[in-house]
């Protein structure tokens, strides 16, 4: 996988830090690094090599090939709950740090924090998964975490090699909303995508984007949340099939 990443756009050093830093249990690391089902990798290899009619499709949806890349971010069966839960965990983490920074009362630990749909402190209003009502119709009107003087941010969790593409997509998707917000509220508005790959791949823009979002945000910590979510998904899939 590292060979397929574009060094100019992907922060390779940062993306693989979790393998060096040792803050993730060996058990979790091995769940992700080892093939979830070695027999199927062998099958996939055989099918590609010998053109055998061997089952290499996802056991859950039968739609995509069963590679870790696809299983951890592209399965429509897992998208309904498992990916959404992982996505929301990362957003909760981000939301918690923003709340802390702007003085909104919250819990001691981020993982016990439950984001409120709307929270306010002074002239700052934080929105969680709420539609922003605009005069002109905007289809992508739920920018996620926060609206304040100049920020609208949105967090994503995606297929490993797609992080760069996802980042561009988010910017495009919320562009109209951004223009509407500037127009309606007379504010400067920025779109700051926070995209973390299912196994921790991040873009070079991530650090810069996080520095602009209020609060202290650790890429290591956000990435750990993504990785724990992914290992949980892999374990669940393996248990289902056992
Ligand atoms: Zn699937």
Keywords:
242 residues; mainly alpha; three-stranded mixed β-sheet; two-stranded antiparallel ribbon; 5 strands; 11% strand; globular; binds zinc ion
What does this structure look like?
The radius of gyration is 19 Å and the shape is globular. Residues 145-154 have low confidence and may be disordered. It contains ten helices and five strands, in the order ααααααββββααβαα. The chain has 242 residues and is mostly helical. 47% of the residues lie in helices and 11% in strands. It has one domain. Helix 6 runs antiparallel to helix 10 (219-241). A three-stranded mixed sheet has the order 3-4-5, sandwiched between helices. A two-stranded antiparallel sheet has the order 1-2. The structure holds zinc ion. Zinc ion is lined by residues 58, 60-61, 63-64, 75, 77.
